[in-house]
Every structure is written in structure tokens, then in C-alpha cells.
Amino acid sequence: MVITISWLFSRLNDSGSGWPSFFAAITVAELYLGVHLAGNDASRVRREAFVESIVGGVPSLPFNQDIARVYSRIYSIFLKPRSKLGSNVHDLQIAATALAYGYPVLTCNVSDFNKMPGLDALSP
């Protein structure tokens, strides 16, 4: 199971789903973005310690060629003319990672992932 930041902040514990839990590489980048956007050094240090404690306990799945193939297929659907299926490119990378590994996505934003063909999005 690939978990999203929305799930992480709603429940900082085991998903209880029976699936192994992973971050997509882009989710780790989203977490570190919060570190770099800190307003001052003290906040940055606190945020970095928090992020390190989280990413140290949940393995991440790299964005590799297999995932890139799935990502490009999904992304093309959203880029086609007349497509009303807007989506965040980070969500597309998370979806591609989950699809490439055959995992569902655990998220509090199920509606953002339900429009991804073939993806099983679960709510905690």
C-alpha cells in the first residue's frame, strides 16, 4: 500500500490494512518541501527532525522506469483534449507507483485518486 501525506497527517500510526506500507518517492519530496519552506532556522530544524523520524520508519519506493511507463500512460489521459479530469502531477506519480507495484493507495483524498484508471484508493 502506498500512503499519501493526507493519510499521514490524519493518522501517524500503522494503516491496519494488512498491506505493507510505503511512500512514493514524490511523497518524501513533499515532506522535505515543508522543511525547506520553514520561515526560520529553528522551525527548519524541528521540521527536518519530524520528517526524518517519519521517513526513517516507512520505506519509499523509487521512481524508476517501470513507474515512469505507468505515469506517462496515466498522465496522457489527463492531457488529452476535452479531458475534464484535472489532477495534480504529484498524485499521478503516487498513483503510478502504486499501480506499478500492484498496491492500493491509502489516502484521505480518495476522490483525487478514484479518477485514476485501475487504481484502488482506500480511505482510512
Structural class: alpha/beta
* Straight-line distance between termini: 12 Å
Write down the secondary-structure element order: EHEHHEHHEHE
Helix content: 40-55%
Q: Largest sheet, order of strands side by side?
A: 3-2-1-4-5
> How many domains, in number, for the residues?
1
Strand content: 5-15%
Annotation, overall tally of beta strands = 5
Provide the CATH architecture. 3-Layer(aba) Sandwich
What does this structure look like?
This protein has 124 residues and is α/β, with parallel strands linked by helices. The chain has one domain: Rossmann fold. The chain has helices at residues 5-10, 25-36, 41-55, 65-79, 89-101, 110-114; strands at 2-3, 22-24, 60-61, 105-106, 121-122. A five-stranded parallel beta sheet has the order 3-2-1-4-5.
Quick description:
The chain has 124 residues and is α/β, with parallel strands linked by helices.
